[in-house]
Amino acid sequence: MVAPPPVLPRPFPDGDPPVTATDQPSTPPRPEAKSPAADSERDGDLVPFRQALKTWFTISLQTFGGPAGQIAVMQRALVEEKRWIGQQRFNHALSYCMLLPGPEAQQLAVYTGWLLNGTRGGLAAGVLFVLPGVVALLALSALYVAFGSTVAVTGLFAGLAPAVVAIVAQAVWRVGRRSLTHPLLVGVAVASFVALALFDAPFPAVIVVAALAGWLIGRYVPHALKPAGSGAVDDGPPPLIPDGALHAERPSARRALRIVAIGLVLWAAPVAAVAVLTGTGSVFTTQGLYFSGTAVVTFGGAYAVLAYVAQQAVQTYGWLGAGEMARGLALAETTPGPLIMVVQFVAFLGAYRDPGTLDPWAAALLGALLTTWVTFVPCFLFIFLGAPYIERLRGNRRIAAALSGITAAVVGVIANLALYFAEHTLFTDVRAWSTGPLHLAVPNVATLRPAALGIALIAVLLIFRLRWSVLRTLGVCATIGLAAAFAGVPGV
């Protein structure tokens, strides 16, 4: 029986760090261990909090392209460049987040922030992860309401969307290369992709089967689950948080009850406030209750719940039209942050058109911010409540093997999202086709958008060949889209 992983002190004691500052010259030096009364020890920071804030803000500005791009950005910054967290530790956290309802990339940021800087680190990472997207989507929603489909706005989106296709393709490659370390794991990823893309399998079923496959692989072919951080896949210096160390915060019933109580109060208080101030039948109360419900059923990411949201928002509540729902998704696709942020656009339009006694613009802002609040507060609750337990489960071989299977399935899930996004970006008409158990989304080749394809190929060249950064690539492609729109290029 293998002994459980050692508990990681916070901060590391003198003379016993997993690496030294000289071991990793590319990584900013860690704070020196201090006396028990020192601030760093009291706060439990493994990296200086200001440095962590700067890093999370930088990451937040690059979280384009949905969960694939967001996970890849964190992978590159935290695992490869900063060396703050090991690959297996990163994969383990991601596997847990994939099991939860809500945006897995944002929850992964909360988890990693908690590992590095405790509760305040998780709060900072989670808030900064969505803040640029909230601000950007508010501005774009206002522009949409005020100006509609102007040439400038259309051209901007025409350049950004194809660039995101290339960014997502890079993300699939990078995440897969790091996580799929054995042919059996590649098989799990491929099977997950096929189940989702060709057979429209329910996401929870895919995750359950992947967990079972991981458990079987761990039982009968244990060497297949060799850590991704070994060998040639990752030959960098040891990470700040080793793969084998545990977080020091221990789970307890008292802690769990405290987190649940605080989380539920924070979640429900704004909805209760608008119900009292605007009435139980107001659009704000309706949106608060409705999106509180969707926040706990969004298993599999935004796409898994978008059909349900679209049906209810368009047909039941009449907050926006079907075409506007598609435009809202395009806005969410081309702004930083989780794709589920599209619900903010839905709430903005719904409240603007049914403001009650408020000014329409004030109503739109209130509806959008309330919806954002009830959508993301549960994410913090799930992580702070479950992460200490998940940390302890890392010492269990069977659980670790099952999560390895889920990690492999994640690659297939992201690849399926990448295919979906590429089809709906490069073609104006994508039709559903089914026969027997097969359910396919087939693009109409006659509706190929040459301008979008050209920009996507340019983005592929910039990212894969010239190794440009995400932000630089997006800037160039946005400029091309604007120029094409003003030049009257067809299909823009």
From TrEMBL:
<dbReference type="Pfam" id="PF02417">
    <property type="entry name" value="Chromate_transp"/>
</dbReference>
<feature type="transmembrane region" description="Helical">
    <location>
        <begin position="123"/>
        <end position="147"/>
    </location>
</feature>
<keyword id="KW-1133">Transmembrane helix</keyword>
<comment type="similarity">
    <text>Belongs to the chromate ion transporter (CHR) (TC 2.A.51) family.</text>
</comment>
<feature type="transmembrane region" description="Helical">
    <location>
        <begin position="471"/>
        <end position="489"/>
    </location>
</feature>
<dbReference type="GO" id="GO:0005886">
    <property type="term" value="C:plasma membrane"/>
</dbReference>
<keyword id="KW-0472">Membrane</keyword>
<feature type="transmembrane region" description="Helical">
    <location>
        <begin position="289"/>
        <end position="309"/>
    </location>
</feature>
<dbReference type="InterPro" id="IPR003370">
    <property type="entry name" value="Chromate_transpt"/>
</dbReference>
<feature type="region of interest" description="Disordered">
    <location>
        <begin position="1"/>
        <end position="44"/>
    </location>
</feature>
<dbReference type="InterPro" id="IPR014047">
    <property type="entry name" value="Chr_Tranpt_l_chain"/>
</dbReference>
<feature type="transmembrane region" description="Helical">
    <location>
        <begin position="399"/>
        <end position="421"/>
    </location>
</feature>
<dbReference type="GO" id="GO:0015109">
    <property type="term" value="F:chromate transmembrane transporter activity"/>
</dbReference>
<feature type="transmembrane region" description="Helical">
    <location>
        <begin position="180"/>
        <end position="199"/>
    </location>
</feature>
<protein>
    <submittedName>
        <fullName>Chromate efflux transporter</fullName>
    </submittedName>
</protein>
<feature type="transmembrane region" description="Helical">
    <location>
        <begin position="329"/>
        <end position="349"/>
    </location>
</feature>
<feature type="transmembrane region" description="Helical">
    <location>
        <begin position="256"/>
        <end position="277"/>
    </location>
</feature>
<feature type="compositionally biased region" description="Pro residues">
    <location>
        <begin position="1"/>
        <end position="16"/>
    </location>
</feature>
<keyword id="KW-0812">Transmembrane</keyword>
<feature type="transmembrane region" description="Helical">
    <location>
        <begin position="153"/>
        <end position="173"/>
    </location>
</feature>
<keyword id="KW-1003">Cell membrane</keyword>
<feature type="transmembrane region" description="Helical">
    <location>
        <begin position="441"/>
        <end position="464"/>
    </location>
</feature>
<feature type="transmembrane region" description="Helical">
    <location>
        <begin position="361"/>
        <end position="387"/>
    </location>
</feature>
